[in-house]
Specification:
The protein is an all-alpha fold.
């Protein structure tokens, strides 16, 4: 479950960066402009780096939180 939330956050980060790139260039958000953003190697590299870092961090925190919650519930159920 933690990895799923990490993937979702990574995808959201990619779209956020694409939107920021278009807004900073005063370009409309449309298929052609998005294609240009995704075809730019420099932008794609930034997207991968930032999305991976955020996705891993979110996934790790969610995974640890769920593991701790599972242990707490298990302990309470035994009591």
């Amino acid at each position: 479950m933690g990895s799923f939330s990490g993937i979702i956050d990574a995808e959201a980060t990619i779209m956020e960066i694409a939107r920021e790139e278009l807004m900073s260039a005063n370009k409309e958000i449309n298929v052609e402009n998005l294609r240009a953003v995704f075809e730019d190697p420099e932008i794609r590299s930034r997207m991968k780096t930032k999305a991976s870092a955020r996705g891993v961090a979110i996934g790790l925190i969610d995974g640890l939180t769920m593991a701790g919650t599972g242990k707490a519930i298990s302990t309470l159920a035994k009591a």
